[in-house]
Specification:
- The protein is mostly beta strands.
- Helix content is 3%, strand content 52%.
- The strands form 2 sheets. The chain has a 10-stranded antiparallel beta sheet with strand order 1-2-3-4-5-6-7-10-11-12, with no helix packed on it.
- Strand 6 and strand 7 form a beta hairpin.
- The protein starts with a strand and ends with a strand.
């Protein structure tokens, strides 16, 4: 068993104004924390569970200009009328290693897992929850090995702040929140320093206006060189 604790801080925006009052010079910070527990139950079976949370300091001092610059889908955190963004996020996964698999060297891992987020600062909005469920076959850590994973994500517009969410998983050429859909990732470790990745996403707006199509497909191809 192994238990880990992680904490961090992000500086979101500096609001210094040489002629303003102390309240007008409220810089915006984001504080995060996570507790993680990894366990190996046998040579074949292992698990991992984690719970985390984050919260703003001076969230209301986020400007609408910053939200416009981010250009993402979701509920804005700017201004005194915005909901608080202080979500609690839980994650769990279970991995079982089989003896072998086609075109794979060594024990073959299969992982099932999920994530759930709930933002109490936006309770009652109907969009303060998010979840992610997935299945992963194999891993691409060793040369000539492969990995294939599938995930379904549902991210309410007020579940997490869109400013730090995945900006590729979205619709209308924007990422963020208020979006649901599928993601498939295929990876192959071609040479010792080189891995090929292919990612496909099929997404749509959760609450699309009547008669408006918000479905979007995206395909990403990248080469990862480790040195």
């Amino acid at each position: 068993h192994k238990v880990g604790l992680t904490a961090g801080e992000f500086v979101i925006v500096e609001n210094y104004n040489g002629t303003g009052t102390a309240s007008q010079n409220s810089d915006v910070y984001l504080f995060m924390g996570q507790a993680d527990w990894a366990a190996k139950w046998s040579d074949r079976l292992s698990s991992r569970a984690a719970i985390g949370a984050y919260a703003f300091a001076n969230q209301n001092a986020i400007s609408t200009n910053l939200e416009t610059f981010l250009n993402q889908n979701g509920t804005s955190a700017a201004g005194p009328g915005a909901p608080d963004f202080n979500p609690i996020i839980a994650r769990g996964e279970l991995t079982y290693k089989f003896d072998s698999a086609p075109l794979f060297q060594g024990p073959f891992p299969v992982t099932v897992g999920g994530e759930y987020a709930n933002n109490p600062g936006a309770s009652g909005s109907g969009m303060n929850e998010a979840y992610n469920i997935g299945l992963t076959l194999g891993d691409a850590k060793m040369k000539h090995n492969w990995q294939l994973s599938y995930h379904y994500k549902h991210i309410g517009s007020a579940a997490v702040w869109h400013g730090i969410n995945d900006d590729d998983f979205g619709y209308n050429a924007k990422g963020g929140t208020g979006v649901a859909g599928h993601q498939i990732i295929a990876s192959y470790h071609l040479y010792q320093p080189l891995t090929i990745n292919l990612r496909y996403m099929l997404t749509e707006q959760i609450d699309a206006p009547p008669g408006v199509s918000s479905e979007q497909s995206r395909l990403f191809f990248d080469l990862l060189w480790v040195f």
